[in-house]
Amino acid sequence: MYSGDDFQNVENTPTIETDRLILRAFTEEDADDFFLLLKDEEVNTFLPWFPVKTLEQARTYLRENYLDYYKHDSAYRYAVCLKSDNRSIGYVVVSNNDSNDFGYGLRKEFWHRGIVTEASMAVVKQLAKAGYAYITATHDVKNSRSGEIMKKVGMKYRYSYVELWQPKNILVTFRMYQLNFDGVNERTFTGYWNKYPEHFIEGNI
């Protein structure tokens, strides 16, 4: 059984506070709030999975993609919470593969308040402190707002590629951004470039 005390201040998922937010590990008690995020069709427009239909589906997703993940040595998968009530309204995550993929999501009623930018900047600072060499992030070219967040946290555009996105089974053109923490500015993660035959560099991004 997971509880708030299990992960609240563990070394691999340090709690972060900003002016308005608490960024902490998810717990089972977040399932109801997480369901509100995962079931919203508009929020999930630019995410690879389909909106969930039931609370139990949300619980399963939370357990498999967050709670179980906290067993890793580095587990930067944060619930984004307002300080006023410490209830989760979104997430900021980093993958545990060689892309170090950085991602975020937020419930629709909290959009356009700078919350994701504030949370993302705080997590980026934590990742630099933790010794990450770099992070990457991708966004659908139709989702330019996501790209603006990447720029605000210091990421730079590197290239674009076309992927048949599953399980939605649609072709999506992604832009890949990267932030190097260790001063090796010329480094570019080429995993997507090598994997997907249709790739290119756009101008004026």
CATH homologous superfamily title: Gcn5-related N-acetyltransferase (GNAT)
Give, in order, the helices and strands. Answer: HEEHHEEEHEHEEHE
Please tell me how large the radius of gyration is: 17 Å
Q: What integer is the average pLDDT?
A: 92
Which fold name is given in CATH as the topology? Answer: Aminopeptidase
Count all strands and give the number.
9
Helical content band: 25-40%
What portion of residues belong to β-strands?
Answer: 25-35%
Counted up, domains total: 1
**What distance lies between the first and last C-alpha atoms, to the nearest angstrom?**
46 Å
Task: Write a concise keyword list for the protein shown above.
5-stranded antiparallel sheet; alpha+beta; Aminopeptidase; 4-stranded antiparallel sheet
Secondary structure topology:
Elements: H1 4-7, E1 16-17, E2 21-25, H2 31-38, H3 55-67, E3 77-82, E4 88-94, E5 102-106, H4 115-130, E6 134-140, H5 144-152, E7 156-165, E8 170-180, H6 191-195, E9 199-200
Antiparallel strand pairs: 1-2, 2-3, 3-4, 4-5, 6-8, 7-8, 7-9
Question: What report would you give on this structure?
Answer:
- The chain is an alpha+beta fold.
- It has a single domain, classed as Aminopeptidase (3-Layer(aba) Sandwich).
- It is 27% helix and 27% strand.
- A hairpin with a 4-residue loop joins strand 7 and strand 8.
